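Morning, I've got a small favour to ask if you have a moment. I owe you a coffee for this, so here goes:
>
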Amino acid sequence: MRVFVTGASGWIGSATVDELLAAGHDVVGLARSDASASALGARGATVLRGDLDDLESLRRGAAEAEGVVHLANKHDWANPAESNRAERVAVETLTGVLAGSDRPFVLAGGVAGLAAGRPGTEADPSPAIGPQSPRGGTENLALASVDRGVRAVTVRFAPTTHGDGDHGFVAIITAAARRHGVSGHVDDGTTRWSAVHVSDAARLVRLGLERAPAGSRLHAVAEEAIPSRDIAAAIGDALGVPVTSVPRAQAVEHFGFIGTFFGMEMAASSDWTRRTFDWTPTGPGLLADIKAGAYRHA
C-alpha cells in the first residue's frame, strides 16, 4: 500500500514509518524542513515537502495515496487555539480528498477525559466536540467522515508514548526534576497515567491502517494506570534526587505547562484493541525505561 504519513519525522511518526516500511508498504512522508526530509529519505521513505498549513501538499499526498496516517500536530502549548485550528483544517482537507474512496484514514488521538472514576475504554466517545475543543474536535470530525465513504480509524495514544530518546511529557517532567533537584508529583501522586512503548504504538498504527473497520477507536495502551508518584520515584532514582509532593496550585510553576496534565487522571484500557487485533505489547514498561536511562538526555 502507498501510505501518506504526516508527522513522519516525529517521535511516533519515525517509528511508524519504520514499521510500515518493514511490512512492505511504500511510505510518502510529509517534511517541513531539510533535516526532516533528509531523515525520511535515509529511512527509505519518499519525501513530500510541506506542513500542516500547506493544504495543497496535504491534498496531493492524500490524493496519490492508498491510505493516510495523520500524526502531525503543531503542539503549540503557548497557543493551543492555533494548534486546534490547524489540526481541524488539516483533517477537513485530508478527509475531503478521501471522501467516497473507502481508503483508510488513521488519526492520532488521546485518552484524556474519556471517563470519570474509571479507565477510559474504546467504547467511550471523545468529549472533544467542535473547532474550539482540544485537537479541534478532530476525532469526532474524522469518524463523521465514515458516512462520506472514508474508512476513518482513530488511534488514541497513552499520555506517554515512551522509549529511548523520547522528548515528550516524561522528558519534560524529568527536566523539571533535574532543574529543581527534586522529583515531584502533584499532591499525593495518586492520579494515574497509561503508557505505551513507541514500538508497540507504531505496530498498532499499522494494524489500524491494514485491518481496522471504519469507525474503530483503538487504544495504544500497554500499561493501564501508573500512579504519578511511581513515575516521580523512578525519575528520582534515575537522577539520584529526592521525591516530593508539589501542591496542585504550584504545579505549573514547578513543572511548566505539563504540570496541568501531570495532575490529571489519564488512565485507559486496551482490552478491546488487544482482542480484536491480536495486539500484544512487547516493549519495556515506562518505569523500566526510566530506570534504564531512556530520559538521560532530558
Observations:
- Residues 68 and 267 are 28 Å apart (CA to CA).
